[in-house]
Specification:
Elements: H1 3-23, H2 37-47, H3 50-53, E1 68-72, H4 77-89, E2 92-96, H5 102-105, E3 111-113, H6 124-132, E4 139-142, H7 161-184, E5 193-197, H8 207-210, H9 217-237, E6 243-248, E7 252-253, E8 270-271, H10 272-285, E9 294-296, E10 301-302
Parallel strand pairs: 1-2, 1-4, 2-3, 4-5, 5-6, 6-9, 7-8
Antiparallel strand pairs: 9-10
Helix pairs in contact: 1-2, 4-10, 6-7, 7-9
């Protein structure tokens, strides 16, 4: 194959791949989502993909009625949105946070457990004790997270290693501390679920598309570590009948993502209430058959590691 033919073949293959993504924006759970988010959103619009554009057409709130659900990082952002939606569903909601907010206090939850820092081993005993007083948990949503505002760059000499370690501790080790505390206390019995809220930013396979120039080391490393933690927990708890979902919640318009507000519209960022329903829909769908999968809550499709 000469150079000209090779270039033509490569261009055709790339075009075919792009077309394939456009043709299957809602192709199902065994197909990988598209890493190119503007293209993904445009394809969803072109195909009128209701799974991505109208979650109310798919989400069944009644499945959560009466379920005891623990949400960490419940005082703001996506965590608070999850709390609001769960309360609407009739779930028994326990909001966990370092310090409550006015919004969380007024949300109508069954219980608020304050003083919980997912980076501190010492607070895990309090969490387990306070939860144990009211019974086992049907679902633990490990939502607590942290995203530093400034973009890190080796070339730009803006690295902050302390912040990177902080993000890894909160986003990755934190979900292990919390899950370990509840499981060790017998609060995650057979049939319960654990949702690890991570990010597509943790997909190493997608970095060439989404971060061709690198950067944002702390965030992406922390989410990749969280994905590994989620997969290992899923494998370990399989024998105990506990299903674990590793979930990218989609692009949500929250305080944490405000640094990217200039691309919210072209990449299909949604209000946190919509993002919360997407997450809860995937939690409803989670089973022992799908435990350990890395799922894009935006379209229900897989994300490669």
């Amino acid at each position: 194959m000469d150079a000209k033919t090779a270039l033509t073949f490569a261009a055709g293959a790339a075009a075919g791949l792009a077309l394939a993504h456009v043709m299957r924006p809602c192709a199902g759970r065994e197909v990988a989502s598209d890493p190119n988010q503007p293209r993904r959103f445009a394809a969803q619009q072109a195909a009128n993909c209701t799974r991505a554009l109208d979650i109310d057409a798919h989400f069944e709130p009644a499945l959560l009625k009466g379920k005891r659900v623990v949400v960490t990082g419940a005082n703001r952002g996506l965590g608070l949105a999850l709390v609001h939606e769960l309360v609407k569903c009739g779930a028994v909601v326990i909001g966990v946070c370092r310090k409550t907010s006015e919004e969380l206090s007024a949300a109508g939850v069954a219980q608020i457990i304050e003083g919980i820092d997912v980076t501190q081993d010492s607070t895990m005993a309090k969490l387990a004790s306070d939860l144990g007083a009211t019974g086992p948990v049907h679902c633990l949503v490990n939502n607590a997270g942290y995203f530093m505002r400034e973009r890190e760059s080796v070339v730009g000499k803006t690295m902050d290693f302390g912040e990177e370690l902080k993000q890894i501790d909160i986003c990755a080790v934190g979900i292990l501390r919390t899950t370990d505390a509840l499981f060790g206390a017998g609060l995650l019995p057979q049939g319960s679920k654990v949702a690890m809220i991570t990010s597509q930013g943790g997909s190493i396979a997608w970095r060439d598309t989404q971060c061709p120039e690198g950067g944002d080391y702390g965030h992406h490393m922390s989410k990749a570590a969280a994905n590994m933690a989620g997969k290992l927990v899923a494998n370990e708890l399989r024998g105990s009948g506990v299903a674990v979902g590793i979930l990218h919640p989609g692009f949500n318009r929250t305080q944490m993502t405000a640094k990217y507000s200039h691309i919210w519209d072209i990449e299909g960022a949604v209000e946190s209430a919509v993002g919360a329903k997407r997450v809860l829909h995937e939690i409803n769908e989670l089973s022992m058959d799908t435990t350990g999968r890395f799922t894009n809550c935006e379209d229900g499709m897989l994300i490669p590691w």
